[in-house]
Amino acid sequence: MNKKDKIKTLWDTHRFLEDRITVLEEEYTMLLYDAKVYCLQSCLKNGITNEEIKLHNIDDFITWTEEYNSDGALNISKDILERDVNRTITELETYYVKQVNTLDEIEKFYDEESFSLPEYGEELPPGAPIECITELSTITKQLLEAHRESSERLLLMIEDEYSI
């Protein structure tokens, strides 16, 4: 593979991973909402009063769950929720790590091959310094760490059932 094809492949990989991470982050957000509703349902089923539930927008959750519970449409299973959350967490972790590795490879390529970014770095504005890739990699690592912390809290919330 020639150098131009290699860097094109790296940038294509970067775009693919970025798109996949976006989809998974949206899934994760929906699962977080499902987990909150699941915990709220558990609280209400077990006689915990609205006043005891510490949630800023409790009325929204109560209204939402009552609307869906009236016709039986909402029945969040802990097993299915845990399965879906674990799958999404694992996939996000995998794609974030791959994204960091790809950015490291892109940075290494530019360092070793001495290409200027405007020549092959389609994602960056003309004249952008190599530091842009380094910064993007740093931000992605921070997102990965935030994802790990959030995932830990989400799994604990589901396990505890009452900690909304």
**In percent, how much strand structure appears in the residues?**
under 5%
Tell me the structural class: mainly alpha
Described by its quaternary structure, the protein is: single chain
Q: How many helices in DSSP terms?
A: 5
Helix content: over 70%
Query: Could you say how many structural domains there are in total?
Result: 1
Largest sheet: none
Number of strands: 0
Rounded to an integer in angstroms, the radius of gyration calculated over CA atoms is 22 Å
pLDDT < 50 runs, ≥5 residues = none
Query: What's the N-to-C terminus distance?
Result: 52 Å
Give the integer mean of the pLDDT values: 80
SSE string, helices as H and strands as E: HHHHH
Q: What would the principal axes of the Cα set say about the shape?
A: elongated
Report what the structure shows.
The protein is an all-alpha fold and 164 residues long. It has one domain. The protein is built from five helices and no strands. It has helices spanning 3-45, 58-70, 78-113, 117-120, 131-160. α1 packs antiparallel against α3 (78-113) and α3 runs antiparallel to α5 (131-160). The longest helix is centred in the N-terminal third of the chain and has 43 residues, at 3-45. The model has no long low-confidence stretch (mean pLDDT 80).
Summarize the structure.
It contains 5 helices and no strands. Helix 1 (3-45) packs parallel to helix 5.
Q: Keywords, please?
A:
single chain; 164 residues; mainly alpha
Write the layout of secondary structure elements.
Blueprint: H1 3-45, H2 58-70, H3 78-113, H4 117-120, H5 131-160
Helix pairs in contact: 1-3, 1-5, 3-5
